[in-house]
Write a structure and sequence with these properties.
With 310 residues, this protein is of the alpha/beta class. It is built from 14 helices and 9 strands. About 2% of the residues have low confidence.
């Protein structure tokens, strides 16, 4: 019997290859026999050595392919806003609908995840006329300043603001509605420096999101539930390859041990210095300050963002 294909997309550069390996190993470990899993890794200039090493994680009904997005990136040259630990790869998800016209639906995942369930559960979610399936961003609902930023700068209630690291994408609808062109036009009209591509995607998809079970994108806050999520997302500075004691770290290391990067990841954690930790803390403080500045700017200019975007 012919299996249905589940396309899964990642965006990466050479720096994130070890974490991508863990994500890929975790998906493969939990894959169902019912589907063909086809992983597409979007990149610009990942070394052949690293591509081959990741490709070695493929198996029966589980393939890994690399796609160079240099051509699409050139169209956006000089217009993509970056800060701190972000790289240009974070914007690649906007290219997926046009790059893969044969797919009507697909899953996008950030590299800093460990998947503890079968992603076919996400894929089977019906989207109807909606553009996306996603999980509410816990940072927006749990940290008051970010909640104010979502409401007062973007015009989106915090409970409706989603995290863009785990997405079920209605690729057919995105192509039909010209998502990439709309994103390009929005870049020209407004600089959003806080969550960058995630802010833009929230605005472009507002009111057309199916909210997924929160266990499919769980932030390892210290107060998070002890039970393992279906997908742990080690975002911001909450990274087990930098710190011991990160919530859900056992999930990460279980799958890391199945990759060629296990010892390298352990060494990265063990060599992480107090200076590195201080830099992480400063980045967190700067981001919070940036959100406060954007809130003040919006109030000063009496600018409600959707009116600008309309």
């Amino acid at each position: 019997m012919k299996r249905e294909t589940i396309p899964i997309f990642f965006s990466v550069d050479d720096r994130y290859i070890p974490y991508l390996a863990v994500a890929v190993a975790s998906i493969r470990e939990n894959a169902s026999e019912k589907y063909d899993y086809r992983l597409h890794v979007l990149h610009v200039g990942v070394s052949r050595k690293n591509r081959n090493r990741i490709a070695s994680l493929a198996g029966d009904h589980f393939t890994v392919e690399f796609s160079d997005v240099r051509e699409y990136l050139l169209r956006m040259s000089g217009r993509l806003h970056l800060r701190d630990y972000y790289t240009v790869a974070t914007y690649f998800r906007f290219f997926i609908p046009d790059l893969f016209p044969d797919y009507d639906k697909g899953i996008y995942l950030d590299c800093d995840v460990a998947v503890n369930g079968d992603v076919s559960e996400i894929y089977e979610t019906g989207l109807g006329e909606n553009l996306l399936g996603a999980v509410t961003e816990e940072v927006m609902t749990d940290i008051p300043t970010y909640g104010r930023y979502s409401r007062e700068v973007l015009g989106i209630e915090p409970k409706n603001y989603f995290n863009a690291g785990v997405l079920l994408m209605n690729l057919q609808k995105m192509r039909k509605e010209g998502l990439l062109d709309r994103f390009s036009a929005l870049l020209d009209r407004r600089h959003l420096p806080v969550a960058q591509d995630q802010d833009y995607l929230n605005l472009l998809s507002a009111g057309r999101v199916v909210y997924l079970d929160g266990r499919w994108n769980k932030t390892p806050f210290p107060y998070a539930p002890e039970e393992e999520p279906k997908l742990a997302h080690y975002k911001m500075s909450m990274k087990p390859w930098h710190y011991r004691g990160v919530k859900y770290e056992d999930c990460f290391w279980r799958y890391a041990a199945k990759t060629a990067w296990y010892e390298e990841l352990l060494a990265e954690r063990d060599s992480y210095t107090a200076q590195d930790a201080a830099r992480d803390a400063l980045q967190g403080e700067n981001l919070l300050r940036l959100a406060e500045e954007e809130i003040e700017k919006a109030a000063r200019e009496e600018q409600f963002f959707p009116a600008v975007f309309a």
